[in-house]
């Protein structure tokens, strides 16, 4: 019996045109995306910023800044833990 994940699998041969489409030198959309990524410091910098933004202390600070109504509940839960 065929499993659903087998139907989702893309063969390496079928990926060749996809890779060519995404990385071709004449593809304006890909170049625009690369330019945008460079604007924000590159992939590593973007990922580092995302990791920082996702840290609990940073998230709690942001909730305080926007005066979130959920902040007190989260602080209570943290105390219970």
Q: Would you give an account of this structure?
A:
It is a single chain. This protein is mainly alpha-helical. Helices cover 74% and strands 0% of the residues. The protein contains six helices and no strands. The protein has helices at residues 4-8, 12-23, 28-39, 43-53, 56-65, 71-80. The protein is flat. The mean pLDDT is 92.
A few lines on this structure:
By secondary structure, the chain is mostly helical.
Percentage of residues assigned to helices:
over 70%
pLDDT < 50 stretches = none
Residue-averaged pLDDT, rounded?
A: 92
Q: Tally the helices.
A: 6
Can you count the beta strands?
A: 0
Broad shape:
flat
How large is the share of residues in beta strands? under 5%
Alpha-carbon Rg, integer: 22 Å
Assembly type of the chains comes to single chain
| Helix-and-strand structural type | mainly alpha
SSE string: HHHHHH
Largest sheet: none
Cα end-to-end separation: 46 Å
Task: Please write out the topology.
Blueprint: H1 4-8, H2 12-23, H3 28-39, H4 43-53, H5 56-65, H6 71-80
List keywords for this structure.
mainly alpha, 81 residues, single chain
């Amino acid at each position: 019996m065929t499993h659903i994940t087998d139907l989702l699998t893309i063969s390496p041969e079928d990926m060749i045109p996809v890779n060519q489409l995404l990385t071709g030198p004449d593809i304006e959309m890909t170049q625009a995306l690369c330019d945008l990524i460079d604007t924000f410091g590159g992939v590593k910098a973007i990922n580092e910023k995302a990791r920082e933004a996702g840290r609990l202390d940073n998230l709690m600070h942001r909730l305080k800044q926007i005066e979130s109504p959920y902040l007190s509940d989260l602080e209570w839960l943290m105390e219970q833990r």
